[in-house]
Specification:
heterodimer, A: 265 residues, mainly alpha, 11 helices, 78% helix, elongated, B: Alpha-Beta Plaits, 29% strand, membrane (chain A), ABC transporter permease subunit (chain A), ABC-type transporter activity (chain A), transmembrane helix (chain A)
Chain lengths: 265, 293
């Protein structure tokens, strides 16, 4: 019942975000054919970019001239960043909203256990993020058909999207945990968004600076590194495990903590 | 017979000063039990602890014989709760909200919803976000009553209702009482508690001051005594114990007295007054009296 309610309540934002991401993907892919024709110019353009930046955005290993290279550099940034923002907003809002809008008192006075509340809200987050990623995959596949008749290494693409999905769930898990644990939830949505931006920034820094490259172990943006996954056709198991552990840890801790928490209304 | 609500040395501390200390009282089945105290005394804290929205720091409580922490979900199946400020999901219509609430109680009683809405003059097709404070409260009343709970917990229920609606509301409560529903009625307005309740618990700064039947509260020996005298200033009452308050109004001397009336009358017998009026104080004054102590 609560799951259905949460799903309905968040459906509008899911639709809006889906339209935006599908629009961006299709738009980018539709300009790929004309860009591929100008590949010589594109390569010059890429070479003009400082080496550090090239590395940070994977341009040293991916080519803008191939469809997946183009996808990994241009579109991947959008799906990871926008998707993480969406996931963080969704997951922090789904709990924090009850307290911010003072509806928690109504919900908690109903005959429903805290565990059911948090489990159904968690499932609603999962369902929304899955659907959002489904939209990414489908609109990418559609876009590919129109963009090029090259044979695509689909395995690499699906591995990349698996990494993206896990990354979105990682940010969703972190934001979900934040809002389940916070006593005052008013600023939790901003904090969750801030986490996404800080992590993105860290991944860029880790790419540019040799000295700070250890930061790549900190940021989920590096875990879903398009250059690595697309060139090696391999999603680093260590990263998959780290994200898996973070996702499970966050949702389970949220589940455990929320059942014992005083809800301030 | 087992009490419906049984609170034992319940404490909840949070922040620096807010909270409740060592509250103990019980409510019998079918009773209308008042919970009286000024704003911030800990009424809502007690209620939220009973509903397990917050957890007790120490002590325990049982509702329907079940522990409020261990069995909170089952307990809430039998409770209708009207919070002091009603907040619902803004994007829902009144009827959807009520159905949503009913679905958790596994009762689909469209007839009762329609009936209650009609009596309270509530438009079920409106969106929650468009409702006035009073209409939100009405929605809250319907929501609390629709699954015919065994225990009604009402926190400042009349706030936001106009006098006519308050009457309807009290009628509804009387019908509930007639059905045997136990009612826990929290308020800072004493006259409405006086109107409905069998017993009251008085709470102040988080501590329970007294549990008393309304009858006994009204029957205590606190009295207003007014003397008509020529020169009130010249009256010397220093020999009489038990005067709580005294003031002079023109040719009248007004006292609030607590104690044995006979010894008072003997003490003032020689005073030069032309008239003496002894009145029962209102519950508000009785309460103020306890509150000042």
């Amino acid at each position: 019942m609560l799951f259905r309610r949460e799903f309905k309540r968040n459906l509008r934002s899911l639709i809006i975000w889906s339209i935006i991401i599908a629009g961006i993907i299709l738009m980018y892919l539709s300009i790929f054919p004309s860009m591929a024709k100008e590949q010589a110019n594109m390569d010059n353009l890429v070479n003009a970019v400082p080496e550090g930046m090239q590395k940070a955005f994977g341009m040293d290993r991916l080519s803008l001239g191939t469809l997946l290279g183009f996808y990994g550099i241009e579109i991947h940034l959008m799906t990871t960043l926008l998707g993480s923002i969406y996931a963080a907003l969704l997951a922090s809002g789904i709990i924090a909203k009850e307290q911010n809008e003072k509806t928690a008192e109504f919900l908690l006075a109903l005959p429903i256990s805290r565990r059911t509340i948090i489990a159904q809200k968690g499932l609603a987050v999962l369902a929304n993020v899955l659907l959002f990623n489904f939209v990414i995959v489908v609109s990418s596949l559609i876009g590919f058909q129109f963009a090029s008749d090259q044979d695509l290494p689909y395995k690499a693409f699906f591995l990349l999207e698996l990494a993206v999905l896990m990354m979105h769930l990682t940010f969703a898990g972190i934001a979900f945990l934040f809002s389940a644990v916070a006593r005052r939830t008013r600023s939790i949505v901003s904090v969750s968004l801030g986490t996404v931006f800080v992590m993105y920034f860290l991944s860029v820094v880790a790419g540019i600076s040799e000295r700070l490259s250890w930061l790549k172990y900190v940021s989920p943006f590096k875990y879903a590194d398009s250059a690595q996954i697309l060139t090696e056709s391999r999603f680093h198991p260590l990263y998959a495990v780290i994200m898996g552990v973070v996702i499970a840890g966050c949702f389970l801790s949220a589940y455990w903590y929320y059942s014992k928490k005083d809800i301030a209304v | 017979m087992k009490p419906i609500v049984d609170i034992e040395r319940l404490s909840k501390t949070y922040g620096k000063s807010r909270g409740i200390k060592d509250i103990t009282f019980s409510i019998e089945e079918g009773e209308v039990f008042g919970f009286i105290g000024p704003n911030g005394a800990g009424k809502s804290t007690t209620i939220r602890t009973l509903l397990n929205i917050i957890f007790p720091t120490s002590g325990s409580a049982r509702i329907f014989g079940k522990d409020i922490v261990a069995h909170s979900k089952e307990i809430r199946e039998g409770i209708g709760y009207l919070p002091s400020e009603v907040f619902y999901y803004d994007d829902m219509k009144v009827i959807d909200l009520l159905r949503f609430s009913a679905s958790f109680h596994r009762c689909r009683n469209e007839k009762r919803i329609a009936e209650l809405a009609e009596r309270l003059d509530l438009d079920l097709s409106r969106k929650i976000e468009d409702l006035s404070f009073g209409n939100r409260k009405k929605t809250g009343i319907v929501q609390a009553l629709l699954h015919e709970p065994k225990l009604l917990i009402l926190d400042e229920p009349t706030g936001g209702l106009d006098p006519l609606m308050q009457n309807t509301f009290f009628e509804l409560l009387k019908e509930e009482r007639a059905k045997g529903t136990t009612i826990f009625f929290s308020s800072h307005v004493l006259s409405e508690v006086q109107r409905m309740c069998d017993r009251v618990a008085i709470i102040k700064e988080g501590a329970l001051i007294k549990v008393e039947t309304i009858e006994n509260l009204m029957r205590n020996n606190l009295r207003h005594i007014t003397f008509a005298v020529q020169q009130p200033e010249s009256i010397d009452l220093s020999g009489i114990r038990g005067i709580v308050k005294q003031e002079i109004l023109g040719t009248h001397l007004k006292l609030l007295y607590e104690g044995d009336l006979r010894s008072f009358v003997q003490g003032v017998a020689e005073l030069p007054f032309s008239d003496m009026l002894i009145e029962e104080p209102s519950l508000d004054e009785i309460f103020l009296h306890y509150y000042m102590k």
